[in-house]
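Suppose a colleague, Dr. K., hands you the sequence of a protein chain of 218 amino acids and asks what its three-dimensional shape might be. Before reaching for any lab equipment, you can write down a predicted structure in token form. Begin with the sequence itself:
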Amino acid sequence: LEVLSVSGGYVLEDKAIEGILKKNPGMKSLSLNICPLMGDESAKGISGLQALQELSLENCSIGSGMLSNPALYSMNLRSVSLACTGSVDDGAIQALSESRCPLEHLNLSKTNITDVGLFTLRQFAGPTLRSLELDEVLDVTNEGMKLFFEPEGGVLQLGKYCDFSGAGNGKDGQRFTDKALEHLAKYCKSSLTNLDVSFCYKITDKGVGHLSSEAGKQ
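The predicted structure, expressed as tokens, is then:
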């Protein structure tokens, strides 16, 4: 078995998940969505999948300790989604960075990462990352965006697709504004092809117009 996708595994027990994964060490794609009984045993099973290229753990009751364990992440991972998992924080990004995987796509929507996690992501995934989703990530600020996209030292090869929908409805002083679009216009006008800023209430027509005029036809 190379591909396994389970959605709505409400009664799928932790030990059962581990058993399935241990019997299929060559698995390349794993998606577990809404599996509330997942725990440490499942993590052990995932850590044994050294050939894994795609990992999706969405809407799961996974502890931050489990997500912050570098052994969870295969060094071959190219696509990771931890969306809608509230225990995902900067520690998970640090653990992911320690795997040194050639990450191309990352979905961190509705998680608790901050500017610190975003900067860690820039440092390790800058050369390979092509797609990043941050829907309703309320603790990432304009300054975090600036640090992420500034090409100092040539670390970051800017992606083509960015999704920040809902991120504008954040805490006071931490909302995306036209300033964030100015950073995008300055640092990725030649590479950005898709941008979603739905429900970012502080972004105006002026900001979108400026980005559009700078980004060109791509």
